[in-house]
Prior knowledge:
Blueprint: H1 4-17, E1 28-32, H2 38-48, E2 55-58, H3 73-83, E3 91-94, H4 100-113, E4 120-124, H5 130-140, E5 145-149, H6 155-162, H7 165-181, H8 195-206
Parallel strand pairs: 1-2, 1-4, 2-3, 4-5
Helix pairs in contact: 1-7, 1-8, 2-3, 4-5, 7-8
Amino acid sequence: MISVQDWQDTQLLWDYQQMGHEPRPCSVGIGLGSHDLGVADTTVDLYRRGMVPLIVFTGATSRTTEGRMPRGEAEHYRDRALELGVPADVILVEPHARNTGQNITLSRALLEERGIDVSSVLLVSKPYEERRAYATARKLWPGVEFVSASTPMTLPDYVDSIQDARLVVDMLVGSLQRLLIYPAQGFMIELDVPADVVGAYERLASRGFTSRLVPGVGSMPGEGVR
C-alpha cells in the first residue's frame, strides 16, 4: 500500500530530478536506453524540431528490458524512430551500454570514431533521471555542454504509463541514492541535494521502497559508504 505521505515524498524526488532546461539546438541528441520508449519518442520530437541533426541511441538490455526489448534497448529505440519517419542515416546505435556511465562513454567513443565534432549534447532520459544523467555526463565527458530533456509529463501520468506504481517509487528512490553516493566513487559530479529531498528519500527507503538501491551500500545515504 502506498500512503499519501509516500506519494508526497515521491513527488519531491520527481520534482528534484527535473533539471528545467529549455531545449536548444545541439550537436547531437543522445537517447539513453531504458524500458521507456518515450525516450525515443522525445528524441525524435527534438530532431523534428530542428534541435539536433544526428541521433545516438544507446543501451543493451537490463533485467527490466530483456523481456520486452530482447534485441537491446538502442535497437528498439532505432526501430521506433524509423517507424516515426526519421531517416536511417541520421541514427547511430550504441548497443553495448548497461548503465548510465557506459551510455555516456560508449556514445562518446562512437561519435569520436565517426569523426563527429561534439560541443553540445541534448541528453534525453526518463523524466525521473534527468539530474542523474546530467551529473554523470558532466563527470565523464568534460568540455561538452549538456542540455537535459525528457518527455514532459506529471508523476501521475508517468505512473499510468508504466502501470506499476511501486516500481516507479522504487526507481525514484534508486536514482536519488545514486546522486548521493556516486560522486564519492567518481561516477558523477556532486550536486546539491536539498534537505527535504534527502528526508523524502530516507522515509521512502525506510518504508521498503528499496528494490532499485545499489546493493551492499545500505538503504540510507552514506550507509556503508563513508
